Amino acid sequence: MKRETVRRTLRAAAVLLALFLLCLLLYALRPPCLILSSTGYYCAGCGTQRMIASLLQGDFPGAFRQNPLMFFLLPLAGIYAAAEAVRYVGKRCPLWKSRAFLPVLLVLLFLSLLFTLLRNLPAFSFLAPLPTLS
């Protein structure tokens, strides 16, 4: 392998490892949701920590119940990060520079806002995360 390819591989691995460690730190600290504590409304991310805890226990239906949006978006984000790392190592144009990136990002933003709105309406209370048992 060329020296530049090795450097790029190490940089990409370091960034992915740093993202993984940041996720572990957030999971370990379990910070409260600032939106929920200040407004009383659930945000699109509320229930994600409990979703991850359920996934780690192998409880996929329980994980889906905590946060259906993040149940699908987090794996997609991981796949995207891995794809960007592969493209970086291969010296290819990043995906975020493609024409389709902005429309996809706007659709995801719209879905997140819609999910946030719906999960706070009484008719869609099934979208709200389950209460903690502690």
Q: Which structural traits does this protein have?
A:
134 residues; mainly alpha; 6 helices
Provide structural commentary.
- This protein has helices spanning 3-29, 34-39, 48-56, 60-66, 68-89, 101-119.
- The chain is mostly helical and 134 residues long.
- Helix 3 runs antiparallel to helix 4.
- The protein is globular and about 60 Å long.
- The N and C termini lie far apart (53 Å).
- The relative contact order is 0.12.
Number of helices: 6
- Judged by helices, strands and strand pairing, the structural class is mainly alpha
Q: Portion of residues in helices?
A: 55-70%
The low-confidence runs, each spanning 5 or more residues with pLDDT under 50, are none
User: What distance lies between the first and last C-alpha atoms, to the nearest angstrom?
Assistant: 53 Å
> How would you state the average pLDDT, rounded?
92
Q: Into which percentage range does the β-strand content fall? A: under 5%
- How would you describe the shape? globular
SSE string, helices as H and strands as E? HHHHHH
Total strands: 0
Largest sheet: none
What is the CA-based Rg, rounded?
18 Å
